[in-house]
Amino acid sequence: MRILVVEDDERIAAFLVKGLRAEGYSAIVAGNGEDAEHLLERPLEPFDLVLLDLGLPTMSGEDVLVDLRRRDPALPVVILTARAEVGEKVRGLDLGANDYVTKPFAFEELLARVRAVVRSTNQPSASELAVGDLRLDLFTKVAQRGGRRIELAPREWALLELFMRHPTHVLTRARILSEVWEYDFDPGSNVVDVYVGYLRRKLNRPGLEPLLKTVRGAGYRLVDHT
Ligand code: CA
Protein backbone atom coordinates (compact mmCIF):
# COMPACT_ATOMS: atom_id res chain seq x y z
CA MET A 1 0.00 0.00 0.00
CA ARG A 2 1.40 3.39 -1.02
CA ILE A 3 0.90 6.34 1.31
CA LEU A 4 1.65 9.94 0.44
CA VAL A 5 2.77 11.86 3.53
CA VAL A 6 2.22 15.60 3.08
CA GLU A 7 4.09 17.23 5.95
CA ASP A 8 6.41 20.26 6.06
CA ASP A 9 7.93 19.44 9.45
CA GLU A 10 10.90 17.28 8.48
CA ARG A 11 11.15 15.69 11.90
CA ILE A 12 7.52 14.57 11.89
CA ALA A 13 7.75 13.47 8.24
CA ALA A 14 10.81 11.32 8.97
CA PHE A 15 9.10 9.81 12.02
CA LEU A 16 6.00 8.97 10.00
CA VAL A 17 7.91 7.47 7.09
CA LYS A 18 10.05 5.34 9.38
CA GLY A 19 7.01 4.09 11.29
CA LEU A 20 4.90 3.43 8.18
CA ARG A 21 7.71 1.56 6.46
CA ALA A 22 8.21 -0.53 9.59
CA GLU A 23 4.57 -1.56 9.21
CA GLY A 24 5.11 -2.58 5.61
CA TYR A 25 3.62 0.49 3.94
CA SER A 26 5.41 2.30 1.20
CA ALA A 27 5.62 5.98 2.16
CA ILE A 28 6.55 8.99 0.04
CA VAL A 29 6.94 12.50 1.46
CA ALA A 30 5.84 15.80 -0.05
CA GLY A 31 7.15 18.73 1.99
CA ASN A 32 4.61 21.23 0.70
CA GLY A 33 1.23 21.45 -1.00
CA GLU A 34 2.63 22.13 -4.46
CA ASP A 35 4.81 19.01 -4.41
CA ALA A 36 1.86 17.01 -3.09
CA GLU A 37 -0.33 18.15 -5.97
CA HIS A 38 2.38 17.32 -8.46
CA LEU A 39 2.78 13.81 -7.03
CA LEU A 40 -0.98 13.25 -6.88
CA GLU A 41 -1.51 14.41 -10.45
CA ARG A 42 1.27 12.33 -11.95
CA PRO A 43 2.06 9.47 -9.59
CA LEU A 44 4.51 6.85 -10.79
CA GLU A 45 2.12 4.42 -9.17
CA PRO A 46 -1.24 5.40 -7.72
CA PHE A 47 -1.45 6.18 -4.01
CA ASP A 48 -3.80 4.28 -1.72
CA LEU A 49 -4.02 6.90 1.00
CA VAL A 50 -2.88 10.45 1.83
CA LEU A 51 -1.79 11.67 5.27
CA LEU A 52 -2.30 15.39 4.98
CA ASP A 53 -0.97 18.10 7.28
CA LEU A 54 -3.23 21.15 7.14
CA GLY A 55 -0.64 23.75 8.18
CA LEU A 56 1.66 23.89 5.15
CA PRO A 57 3.89 26.83 4.08
CA THR A 58 2.32 28.38 0.94
CA MET A 59 -0.48 26.24 -0.40
CA SER A 60 -2.58 24.99 2.54
CA GLY A 61 -3.57 21.41 3.19
CA GLU A 62 -7.21 22.46 2.74
CA ASP A 63 -6.44 23.64 -0.80
CA VAL A 64 -4.66 20.38 -1.59
CA LEU A 65 -7.73 18.49 -0.33
CA VAL A 66 -10.21 20.58 -2.34
CA ASP A 67 -8.20 20.08 -5.56
CA LEU A 68 -7.76 16.38 -4.85
CA ARG A 69 -11.47 15.82 -4.24
CA ARG A 70 -12.31 17.47 -7.56
CA ARG A 71 -10.14 14.95 -9.37
CA ASP A 72 -10.53 11.93 -7.13
CA PRO A 73 -13.52 11.64 -4.80
CA ALA A 74 -12.46 8.23 -3.55
CA LEU A 75 -8.80 8.41 -2.51
CA PRO A 76 -8.76 8.09 1.30
CA VAL A 77 -7.38 11.12 3.15
CA VAL A 78 -6.49 11.30 6.84
CA ILE A 79 -5.80 14.82 8.08
CA LEU A 80 -2.94 15.45 10.48
CA THR A 81 -3.44 18.65 12.32
CA ALA A 82 -2.10 20.51 15.31
CA ARG A 83 -5.34 22.47 15.30
CA ALA A 84 -7.41 20.79 17.94
CA GLU A 85 -10.33 23.14 17.41
CA VAL A 86 -13.54 21.37 16.54
CA GLY A 87 -14.22 23.82 13.71
CA GLU A 88 -11.03 22.86 11.88
CA LYS A 89 -11.83 19.17 12.12
CA VAL A 90 -15.37 19.69 10.92
CA ARG A 91 -14.13 21.79 8.01
CA GLY A 92 -11.58 19.13 7.05
CA LEU A 93 -14.21 16.40 7.13
CA ASP A 94 -16.66 18.56 5.19
CA LEU A 95 -14.02 19.11 2.52
CA GLY A 96 -13.89 15.37 2.04
CA ALA A 97 -11.31 13.98 4.46
CA ASN A 98 -12.10 10.49 5.73
CA ASP A 99 -10.68 10.99 9.21
CA TYR A 100 -8.29 13.17 11.19
CA VAL A 101 -5.59 12.77 13.81
CA THR A 102 -4.65 15.64 16.10
CA LYS A 103 -0.98 16.30 16.84
CA PRO A 104 0.65 15.23 19.02
CA PHE A 105 -0.64 11.76 18.25
CA ALA A 106 0.22 8.24 19.32
CA PHE A 107 1.58 6.38 16.31
CA GLU A 108 -0.51 3.33 17.20
CA GLU A 109 -3.64 5.45 16.92
CA LEU A 110 -2.59 6.82 13.57
CA LEU A 111 -2.03 3.28 12.28
CA ALA A 112 -5.40 2.16 13.57
CA ARG A 113 -7.11 5.04 11.79
CA VAL A 114 -5.25 4.30 8.57
CA ARG A 115 -6.37 0.67 8.74
CA ALA A 116 -9.96 1.65 9.52
CA VAL A 117 -10.13 4.10 6.63
CA VAL A 118 -8.64 1.59 4.20
CA ARG A 119 -11.05 -1.09 5.40
CA SER A 120 -14.08 1.11 4.99
CA THR A 121 -13.12 2.43 1.57
CA ASN A 122 -11.88 -0.84 0.10
CA GLN A 123 -15.32 -2.38 0.06
CA PRO A 124 -16.52 -1.72 -3.45
CA SER A 125 -18.82 1.27 -3.56
CA ALA A 126 -19.22 1.28 0.22
CA SER A 127 -19.46 5.02 -0.17
CA GLU A 128 -22.42 4.91 -2.54
CA LEU A 129 -26.07 4.07 -2.05
CA ALA A 130 -28.05 3.31 -5.19
CA VAL A 131 -31.75 2.62 -5.69
CA GLY A 132 -33.07 2.66 -9.24
CA ASP A 133 -31.63 5.75 -10.89
CA LEU A 134 -30.99 7.46 -7.55
CA ARG A 135 -27.41 7.74 -6.29
CA LEU A 136 -26.10 9.07 -2.99
CA ASP A 137 -22.37 9.38 -2.58
CA LEU A 138 -21.77 9.41 1.15
CA PHE A 139 -18.19 10.72 0.88
CA THR A 140 -18.65 13.54 -1.56
CA LYS A 141 -22.22 14.22 -0.42
CA VAL A 142 -23.47 14.31 -3.97
CA ALA A 143 -27.03 13.22 -4.70
CA GLN A 144 -28.09 12.44 -8.26
CA ARG A 145 -31.12 11.16 -10.08
CA GLY A 146 -30.56 9.86 -13.58
CA GLY A 147 -27.16 11.59 -13.61
CA ARG A 148 -28.70 14.94 -12.72
CA ARG A 149 -27.42 16.46 -9.51
CA ILE A 150 -29.90 17.28 -6.76
CA GLU A 151 -29.11 19.85 -4.08
CA LEU A 152 -30.33 18.72 -0.66
CA ALA A 153 -30.47 20.47 2.70
CA PRO A 154 -28.95 18.42 5.57
CA ARG A 155 -32.31 17.09 6.87
CA GLU A 156 -33.43 16.24 3.36
CA TRP A 157 -30.17 14.35 2.88
CA ALA A 158 -30.63 12.44 6.15
CA LEU A 159 -34.20 11.56 5.20
CA LEU A 160 -33.28 10.37 1.71
CA GLU A 161 -30.33 8.38 3.08
CA LEU A 162 -32.69 6.65 5.51
CA PHE A 163 -35.09 5.73 2.69
CA MET A 164 -32.24 4.53 0.50
CA ARG A 165 -30.86 2.33 3.25
CA HIS A 166 -34.27 0.65 3.45
CA PRO A 167 -35.62 0.63 -0.09
CA THR A 168 -39.17 -0.70 -0.52
CA HIS A 169 -39.65 -0.83 3.28
CA VAL A 170 -42.46 1.16 4.82
CA LEU A 171 -40.94 3.68 7.22
CA THR A 172 -43.32 4.96 9.85
CA ARG A 173 -43.41 8.60 10.87
CA ALA A 174 -42.25 7.57 14.36
CA ARG A 175 -39.20 5.81 12.97
CA ILE A 176 -38.35 8.71 10.67
CA LEU A 177 -38.75 11.18 13.55
CA SER A 178 -36.47 9.05 15.68
CA GLU A 179 -33.74 8.51 13.09
CA VAL A 180 -33.68 11.84 11.29
CA TRP A 181 -34.80 14.24 14.02
CA GLU A 182 -33.81 12.13 17.02
CA TYR A 183 -37.26 12.64 18.50
CA ASP A 184 -38.45 9.68 20.49
CA PHE A 185 -41.87 11.22 20.73
CA ASP A 186 -44.25 12.71 18.24
CA PRO A 187 -43.90 16.47 18.52
CA GLY A 188 -47.40 16.75 17.13
CA SER A 189 -46.23 18.53 14.02
CA ASN A 190 -46.30 17.41 10.42
CA VAL A 191 -42.56 17.91 9.98
CA VAL A 192 -42.07 14.48 8.38
CA ASP A 193 -44.82 15.07 5.82
CA VAL A 194 -43.41 18.52 5.07
CA TYR A 195 -39.91 17.13 4.44
CA VAL A 196 -41.20 14.22 2.38
CA GLY A 197 -42.94 16.90 0.31
CA TYR A 198 -39.66 18.81 -0.13
CA LEU A 199 -37.90 15.61 -1.20
CA ARG A 200 -40.63 14.69 -3.66
CA ARG A 201 -40.38 18.05 -5.34
CA LYS A 202 -36.62 17.68 -5.68
CA LEU A 203 -36.63 14.04 -6.79
CA ASN A 204 -39.63 13.95 -9.09
CA ARG A 205 -39.22 14.37 -12.79
CA PRO A 206 -41.98 15.07 -15.28
CA GLY A 207 -43.47 11.92 -16.73
CA LEU A 208 -41.97 9.65 -14.08
CA GLU A 209 -43.79 8.01 -11.20
CA PRO A 210 -43.11 9.46 -7.76
CA LEU A 211 -40.36 7.63 -5.83
CA LEU A 212 -41.77 8.30 -2.39
CA LYS A 213 -45.16 6.69 -1.93
CA THR A 214 -47.54 7.41 0.89
CA VAL A 215 -48.69 4.24 2.60
CA ARG A 216 -51.99 5.24 4.09
CA GLY A 217 -52.09 4.98 7.87
CA ALA A 218 -48.51 3.70 8.03
CA GLY A 219 -45.90 6.03 6.62
CA TYR A 220 -43.80 6.27 3.48
CA ARG A 221 -41.97 3.93 1.19
CA LEU A 222 -39.23 4.48 -1.39
CA VAL A 223 -40.09 2.53 -4.52
CA ASP A 224 -37.67 1.22 -7.09
CA HIS A 225 -39.17 1.55 -10.57
CA THR A 226 -36.27 -0.20 -12.32
CA1 CA B 1 2.82 21.80 9.33
Short description, anyone?
The chain has 8 helices and 12 strands.
What's the arrangement of secondary structure elements?
Layout: E1 2-6, H1 10-22, E2 26-30, H2 33-41, E3 49-53, H3 61-71, E4 77-81, H4 86-94, E5 99-102, H5 107-122, E6 128-131, E7 134-137, E8 142-145, E9 148-150, H6 154-165, E10 170-172, H7 173-180, H8 191-203, E11 212-215, E12 219-222
Parallel strand pairs: 1-2, 1-3, 3-4, 4-5
Antiparallel strand pairs: 6-7, 7-8, 8-9, 10-12, 11-12
Helix pairs in contact: 2-3, 6-8
CATH-derived topology of the largest domain: Rossmann fold
Helix share of residues?
Answer: 40-55%
| Biggest beta sheet summary | 5 strands, parallel
Query: How many discrete structural domains?
Result: 2
Q: Which CATH-level-2 architecture of the largest domain? A: 3-Layer(aba) Sandwich
Q: Please compute the radius of gyration using only Cα atoms.
A: 21 Å
Q: Briefly, what CATH class of the largest domain?
A: Alpha Beta
Which overall shape is indicated by the principal axes computed on the Cα atoms?
A: elongated
CATH homologous superfamily grouping of the largest domain: Response regulator
The overall average pLDDT, rounded, is 87
Q: Which structural class should the secondary elements be placed in?
A: alpha/beta
Distance between the termini: 38 Å
- The arrangement of helices and strands along the chain is EHEHEHEHEHEEEEHEHHEE
Tell how many strands the DSSP assignment holds: 12
Biggest sheet strand line-up: 2-1-3-4-5
User: Which molecules other than protein and nucleic acid are bound?
Assistant: calcium ion
